[in-house]
């Protein structure tokens, strides 16, 4: 039997040195006893050798760096058996490859539980330390008393330094105390509660806040205690209020419910008159026929002609000169258009703009709009998947498109894709067959037919994509020639 | 009116803020004060410094700048027709309170909201000024969450994003109809546009700029929203549909569900009942299924005729009971997606299972060590030494998995 005496509760270097020697000599876990200096008088009577065994010449002992790091953390646990558990684990890791990856192994499970407990204790220390301000030689100093479950105070000094850098503070704990004077961390011996200040003026404010933020109609005492166990209460200035708050909650909630609705507050009528009455008037009804495009746009903002408005952010109306010779009609706004409230600003719009520029059409001179003016989509996690408007929606939205065209009176309309062509012509015509043709509608509108730029973005094959892009540019060049000829 | 003390104002203006469900201080960038010598840090995770007996964590000083408001939203204690006592903090008072509380380690930071007085710009301007003084004058590195006012000047929004970790705009209620009935002055279209603008701003600022190649700091904790549950007749399906739309459209970090709770001096148009806390809890669980478990919104309630989540069992178990043909899943072979659908296996347990099974074939006992409760999982999995047999399709399975009513009421 070997006995190892560590210098203190978290003497990892001492433990590591001993464990290494023992492991090199092939000592099994059952043959070692670890203790902390001054804490195990009875060990003296056992037949134990405090001398570590000599390792055989040339012996090697290696373990992954990760296990060393994890054991270094676990030594801060309060479990008195941890030193021998750590040694057992160390040996197992050296013999069983991948052991650390096997979370279902009982030893690994124990390791994880210990780590979790330490993390939780550290988290609770971060949460439940309560500083009280005192005056030290004319300077503010903040002092707290805290009782962690494990030997973590020294380890957590870094957290408090990074958070309260601009403050001078001391945290007293039964095991060790830590202090920050603005330049250095000092570690001192443990202290007792009486060493900490008894009160702080800010605590009245804090208790007022704690009481006022509580909603008596939503009592969930179990949930509270799961996160704020009673063992922490004795050092929390707000905790003594809790029993009273719980006891009074039922009555407070009942009173709230029982109280009859009262008359409006005296200033309510004045506020209504000043802020809201004027706004409730005005606004143009949809049934009136708009005489300008601006008026039409205003009407369309509140469009409820089909259900698409419910999910979309806003109506995306057409954009461009009110007397443009050419009107481009796309399908519907996409994700970006829906946010920006402008047509053709997303990826397809950028492709469209680039092609216009390439063939020499000034976007400032043309009017661009969509057959359907609300974005239709399916939510998929953080994305919105474009979904094609159905004929009912296209039909409903023609109310706006027809009026746009009537007010603008363009010489030429360009249908970008099938939906636009349907909306403009009122019937289903194949795009490919009519591409680069001019279809004249029943109302006498001349419609040039081409594809929608988003189609170009969806072609996976590079060569095909390049070819289609060229074809699209040629289409737009034909539009340019028609514009110039007019 | 006599001058109110800071203590009196704090009582009024934190009482006025308690119906806001959000209190998260997580999801922001990590930072500390070592470099600046100021006060404050964020670790990314957020720390709950206390808990009220309503079970809700207190991590932030959650207050209103003022509870005067020109809006008259029926569900809100601060509406203009309410007879509640009114108060107004000065910018200085809020800054001092935040620092005093933070230095004593009572809080993680500030969640500042406000009733709207005079104009949206004036109100928003004051909120931004609080954040600016904290950040610039006092080198405060703690968490700041500002509630933004939908109609305010975009420049103010830009400043708010520079100083705050998170910005939020409440959608108020699950449907536009609900808003127009209960909050007649609020305009859902404006709220949506504001959230859209915020998403665009967050995305724009997260692109490295040409000149500096560095990202500008803009609301690193993203944006969130809140809707009130149970004040209007919207069912759970409608509520989750709204959430799915909000997550996908505006990339929200969180949608908070706040069970409508009786307020003092309530309007007669609203149900004065105990808040449906269980329903709220189920909605949060369903929300998690959408965000972390790969569920689509329309799957969660598929086959449920009334569009309401089952209050007796959690939504994942309810889904599994309604889709038993998908079970059992083999824990040694099933893919991540199928494992995530097993009731009782969380994201962490699934990650562990996937790792362990590269080296070991799992027995039921092993699974038991990797999850909270093997009893919950048992009917839905197979393992090396375990077949659920007829258990998966047993008609009484739901009854077996349902806790006794007496236990239920504890939550």
Describe this structure in words.
The complex is a heterodimer of chains A (486) and B (411). Chain A is of the alpha/beta class and 486 residues long. In chain A, helix 2 runs antiparallel to helix 3 and helix 13 crosses helix 14 (418-425). Chain A is elongated and about 105 Å long. Chain A starts with a strand and ends with a helix. Chain A has 17 helices and 14 strands. In chain A, 42% of the residues lie in helices and 14% in strands. Chain B folds into two domains: 6-300, Aldolase class I (TIM Barrel, Alpha-Beta Barrel); 315-401, no CATH class. Helices cover 38% and strands 9% of the residues of chain B. In chain B, the strands form three sheets. A six-stranded parallel sheet of chain B has the order 3-4-5-6-7-8. In chain B, a hairpin with a 5-residue loop joins strand 1 (50-51) and strand 2 (57-58). The radius of gyration of chain B is 24 Å and the shape is globular. The model of chain B is unreliable at 406-411 (pLDDT under 50). Chains A and B meet through helix 4, helix 5, helix 6, helix 7 and helix 8 of A and helix 1, strand 1, strand 2, helix 2 and helix 6 of B.
Features:
heterodimer; A: 486 residues; alpha/beta; 4 domains; 5-stranded mixed β-sheet; 14 strands; 14% strand; B: 411 residues; TIM Barrel; 2 domains; two-stranded antiparallel ribbon; 16 helices; 10 strands; disordered C terminus; DNA damage (chain A); iron-sulfur (chain A); hydrolase (chain A)
What's this model, at a glance?
Chain A: Keywords: 4Fe-4S, DNA damage, DNA repair, Hydrolase, Iron, Iron-sulfur, Metal-binding. Chain A: Belongs to the uracil-DNA glycosylase (UDG) superfamily. Type 4 (UDGa) family. Helices cover 42% and strands 14% of the residues of chain A.
Element layout with pairings:
The complex is a heterodimer of chains A (486) and B (411).
Chain A: E1 2-6, H1 12-24, E2 32-36, H2 65-74, H3 82-95, H4 106-128, E3 132-136, E4 139-145, H5 157-163, E5 169-172, E6 176-180, E7 185-189, H6 202-212, H7 221-227, H8 242-258, H9 268-280, H10 293-301, E8 326-330, H11 335-340, H12 347-359, E9 367-370, E10 377-380, E11 383-386, H13 391-408, E12 412-416, H14 418-425, H15 431-434, E13 438-440, E14 446-450, H16 453-457, H17 462-485
Parallel strand pairs in A: 1-2, 4-5, 8-9, 8-12, 12-14
Antiparallel strand pairs in A: 3-4, 5-6, 6-7, 10-11, 13-14
Helix pairs in contact in A: 2-3, 12-17, 13-14
Chain B: H1 6-15, E1 50-51, E2 57-58, E3 60-64, H2 91-103, E4 109-113, H3 120-137, E5 143-147, H4 154-163, E6 166-168, H5 176-182, H6 188-206, E7 223-229, H7 236-250, E8 254-259, H8 277-292, H9 297-300, H10 315-322, E9 329-330, H11 336-340, H12 347-356, H13 364-370, H14 374-377, E10 381-382, H15 397-401, H16 405-408
Helix pairs in contact in B: 2-3, 3-4, 7-8
